Amino acid sequence: MTDSDDVRVFSIQLSVIRCSHTAVRDEDWRRSSVFHTYITHEGKNYKLMIDEGSCANIIVKTTLEKMSFKAEPHSHSHHVNWVDKTPQSITQRCQVPIRMSNCEDHVWCDVLDIDAAHILLGRPWLYDLDVTSLGRCNTYEFKWNGKQ
Q: Domains in the chain, ordered, with CATH?
């Protein structure tokens, strides 16, 4: 480069703008809660939860006894880690009658000691009935005997 070469210098200015007037989203309880309802058996209410993150349908051991259902040996005994990472053995299962509105079915549930609900329906139930979750409405849809 010689003294006669024309040297041009470009200056670029970058600015960062932070919008301080963005709307804060109110925390809707449906965003962080697991769906639950109640079913009735012989005049008593039992809490039923639907958890899309659970890989099993579960009935609590004490609920099984209260409902006077009979458990049988599980065909594929296995271990699960619950929320607190405590491993539990699943050695029994039970066919549980579930009635929601006009839908009446029997669901195979693993027998386990948990505190979340009396009965927990997970991925197996959701898959078998091809259930659709409507999160904002806090409902689940599926077809039963040809009806939505």
A: 29-141 (2.40.70.10)
